[in-house]
Amino acid sequence: MKTVKHILQAKGAVVYAVSQSTSVFDALQTMMEKNISALLIMEQATLVGIFTERDYARKIILQGKSSKETPVQLVMTPGPRTITTDEKVEHCMELMTNNHVRHLPVVESGQVVGMISIGDLVKHIIEDQKQTIDQLQNYISS
């Protein structure tokens, strides 16, 4: 059974973050450049929130606000749920689906070490299933 540590090792434990005072426009620019759908909001070494494409759609576009003038602090999701590297992939999938979130920041020893998405989880679950199928096919063939 894979853990979050396996996912971070496979995808790289990169942390993309901005501060609360960053404009929504600049945060979106960073997301576009990095080809990601969420950013962590940090103040010094403290995780204070998460900003996602969903936040942008619901809190900027649908409310008719300006993304250049609005700081991320006003539209981010504060105090996001976090996980540790030893969490099982299946448990993370359960957390995400039950809480309707698509991203989970990963914290280890009080430090943010990465973030996983629901897409990361799906990819690894499918890979595990494929590996099991391949093993069963090899067993049947031999």
From TrEMBL:
Q: Does the keyword Heme apply?
A: no
- Name of the protein: CBS domain-containing protein
Q: Which organism is it from?
A: Sphingobacterium phlebotomi
Domain CBS per the UniProt entry, residue ranges: 9-67, 76-132
State the organism's lineage.
Bacteria, Pseudomonadati, Bacteroidota, Sphingobacteriia, Sphingobacteriales
Q: Which UniProt keywords apply?
A: CBS domain
Respond yes or no to whether keyword Signal is given for this record: no
What is any Pfam family matched here? CBS
Q: Which InterPro entries match?
A: CBS_dom, CBS_dom_sf, CBSX3_CBS_dom, Diverse_CBS-Domain
